[in-house]
Design goal:
alpha/beta, about 35% helix, about 290 residues
């Protein structure tokens, strides 16, 4: 877990228009907005300090890469104050949904209000401070079921998933493994973490998010060492995968990816056009309630 509140690098704001044309109604299922701090200040109990990365800037990026819909995930610097995320969802109207960071035990009316404002899931993390940890898993899972939400697991290392697997199998709400369950390319398909991913896919409640995979690769772009893991998951459950840009790529220490370049990886990750349609359009519409 990070213990620094130092400023992290911002995104590449000169988004390149990708060569690959995304299908109509494609959805970016993982992005964040931060600030503006003058309106939405950061939590003092944060792990990192990003630049202001606003809804206007994100919408400009989406229009450049050709994405219609998006899911904003509450970012660590705002802790459990979801107002910046909710304001961005409101600004974008029907284009956006959201994943909140809330503790278990909120009154039902508060959760109903969040649902009305576009929230469709909750995130737990062992990566950043100031949020909600896995001690809330069982209670949040039960509360998510009331609204048809899912729980999202933001793991520091894939080994954590091995310990969580028995608990996840006992819950009944859908759950999302952020960033391919944090399985690194150098761990491989025989690793305990990846075996846990494949095991959980058999529950029929597990979703896999293909986002921020540049962090898991040991190679430079196009990060080809990730392909065996990606292809195995896509082949197993094309109906349970979604894609995300991870804009604005917070706390990334390596070369900052260009979001147009990330879009151009999609046909390498998912060569089958019907599977791409599922990942980019059908699956997000099902999970997040887009029309």
């Amino acid at each position: 877990m990070s213990t620094s509140t130092g400023t992290c690098q911002g995104p590449d704001r000169n988004t390149r228009r990708p060569k690959f044309q995304l299908p109509a109604n494609s959805c970016d299922c993982h992005a964040h907005v931060f600030g503006p701090q003058a309106i939405h200040p950061f939590s003092p109990d944060r792990s990192y300090t990003p630049e202001d990365c606003t809804a206007d800037q994100y919408l400009k990026m989406l229009d450049t890469i050709g994405v219609t819909r998006a899911v904003l995930v509450q970012g660590g610097p705002h802790g459990t104050d979801n107002t910046a995320t909710l304001a961005a969802i409101k600004q974008a109207g029907s284009r956006f949904r959201g994943v909140a960071v809330i503790p278990s035990g909120l009154p039902e009316q508060e959760r109903a209000d969040l649902h009305q404002q576009g929230i469709r899931g909750v995130r737990m993390s062992t990566v950043v401070r100031g949020g909600v940890g896995f001690e809330h898993l069982e209670n949040l899972s039960a509360e998510c079921e009331e609204f048809g939400w899912h729980v999202m697991l933001h793991l520091h290392k894939s080994e954590e998933l091995v310990g969580l697997t028995p608990r996840l199998k006992k819950t009944s709400a859908p759950f999302m493994l952020d960033h391919l369950g944090r399985v690194r390319a150098d761990e491989g398909m025989d690793s305990p973490g990846f075996k846990a991913v494949m095991d959980l896919l058999d529950t029929d409640r597990c979703w896999i998010k293909l986002a921020s995979l540049y962090r898991l690769s040991s190679e430079a772009y196009p990060h080809s060492d990730m392909l065996p893991l990606i292809h195995k998951v896509v082949e197993a459950r094309p109906d349970r995968i979604v894609w995300g840009s991870n804009w604005p790529h917070p706390i990334h220490a390596g070369p900052m990816p260009n979001d147009g370049d990330l879009v151009d990886l999609i046909p390498q990750w998912v060569p089958n056009a019907s599977h791409r349609e599922q990942m980019l359009v059908t699956n997000p519409a099902t999970l997040y309630g887009f029309e």
